[in-house]
Amino acid sequence: MLHLTGSTVAVGRDWGDGDDTAEDRGLKHRPKAATRDVPVAPPLVRLLNHHIKEYPPGSNDKLFVTRRGAGGRYVPTAGQPIPNNTYGKAWRDARAKVLTPAQQHSPLARRPYDLRHAAVSL
Q1: What share of residues in the chain are helix, strand, coil (percent, to 5)?
Q2: Tens of pLDDT along 25-64?
Q3: Model-level pTM?
Q4: Cβ atoms of residues 76 and 84 within 8 Å
Q5: Which of 4, 17, 71, 110 has the fewest Cβ atoms within 10 Å of its own Cβ atom?
Q6: Strand 36-38 to strand 7-10: parallel, antiparallel, or no bridges (unpaired)?
Q7: Is 87 among the domain residues?
Q8: How many domains does the chain divide into?
C-alpha cells in the first residue's frame, strides 16, 4: 500500500500562493490533513524499494528529486524538485523507444496528460 498524504504541484509564478513555482498541497477534494491508502502491485513495490535503496529520499523527504548541483555535478543530497521539462524529455525518449515512427508522429500520448483522456489510468 502507498500511504499518500498530499502532492506537490507545479504552478506558474502568478498562480501560486507563494513565490515558488511548486506548491505542496493536500489531496484533491479532501480535507488538508486527509490521507489515502492506495493498493500497489508487487512489481511496483519492487521497483520502488530498489529506487529507495539506490537513491535515498532527498533532505526534504521527497522520493524523486534531482541529484545535480551547480554545473551539473552530482550532489547526492541536492534534493531539489525535478524540473517540469525533465518529465517531457523522459516521456519523449520513452515514446521513441516503444512506438513506431508513424505512432510517434501521431497525437497518440504526445504528452503524459493525454493519457487522462484515453482513460489509461482506469
Answers
A1: 35, 15, 50
A2: 888 888 888 999 999 999 999 999 998 898 888 777 778 7
A3: 0.58
A4: no
A5: 71
A6: unpaired
A7: yes
A8: 1
